Amino acid sequence: MVDIATRVYNHKWKIDPIVRSLIDTDFYKLLMCQSVFRNKPQTDVVFSLINRSNHVPLAKLIDEGELREQLDHIRSLSLSRGESTWLRGNTFYGKRQMFRPDFMEWFENLRLPPYHLERKGDQYELTFEGKWHEVMLWEIPALAVLMELRSRAVLNGMRRFELQVLYARAMTRVWEKIAQLRNIEGLGIADFGTRRRHSFLWQDWCVQAMIEGLGSSFTGTSNCLIAMRREVEAIGTNAHELPMVYSALAEDDAALAQAPYDVLSDWHEEHDGNLRIILPDTYGTKGFLDRAPDWLAGWTGIRIDSGDPATGAEIAIDWWKSRGEDPTQKRIIFSDGLDVDKIRELHAQFADQTNVSFGWGTLLTNDFRGLVPNEALAPFSLVCKAVSANDKPTVKLSDNPEKAMGPTDQIERYKRVFGVGAQKAIKVIV
User: Which residue in 95, 135, 229, 306 has its CB near the most CB atoms, within 10 A?
Assistant: First the structure.
């Protein structure tokens, strides 16, 4: 096992690039990329970095030259033969050849497109422009680079024994969390922590700890590279990006109202089983489900990613019942800001009503809260989102207004079209 503290102390970053591979990304990005490659290949999209935690002055902490060096390194990456073989030949969600030959041929020849980086005060403006299926693959590595460079900036001033103690304390914290989860009967939990991880080595360590500590309760990781290396399941379905871009492309209000269902119609043609998971909160969960076509009720499950998770689960269960479906045969995946206490609470509340599982993210792979002075290593909320499509702005409403994004006039329009009324603001954890 890698001695992380010694690796950090030696500062040999040339042999430790932050992003090691094009598949050092979340599995859902590749699934979505194939869908976009097939259905919207001519769509031009702009992605932009958004630091929701503007008290973290990234441009003061991170050297611009180091940031450019890491981003340039990512642009030099291409699939290795072994990575291509794994994607082409492996079984994902019970399906062999999940990725079609034409998509794989394109992916094997891909180099990520250029980026635009500019300092604005104490923050960086980082954007990516181009064809949707190309620039979308910048999201996860861009976030990983910013998060880890911030970690390295803090760790750079620490000495050998200080680092050893820091990582020993962090490892103890993770292991104690795992020990608490081990006693939950019927638990199903996956690592969803790539985008805001402390570092690649730390995420890899956390996955190994989950494998040993949780056994069959650990269902896999969203990180493709770690899944391949550790021989565990790659986990993921789809994200808000799809309805946000489809909706931006809508020509009028009627098309806008239909756009989130068009996304899932395209998805329905490509995937079945456990990949048919609805993410309903982009423009309000209840309204989305109330207006959903009947065929969506037959899908496998729903992911709850904003708002009060218990309320979201109750809405989903009631919706299935209203459509003549048995909730005990469905799956609810909780994935927003989870930590041990919330996981235990939600499992106890809903495990007898439906199949419950969890995507554990930042507070698995980046919980260094209280371990250094001034919370200098505490996780913070950094996102990289599609902000426009074919020169039209994207909008996200969410079940939590603190996560809403887009121009004010368009937010109001989307609220009107999707019937979103007053919402309760919930503090964004990460």
Answer: 306
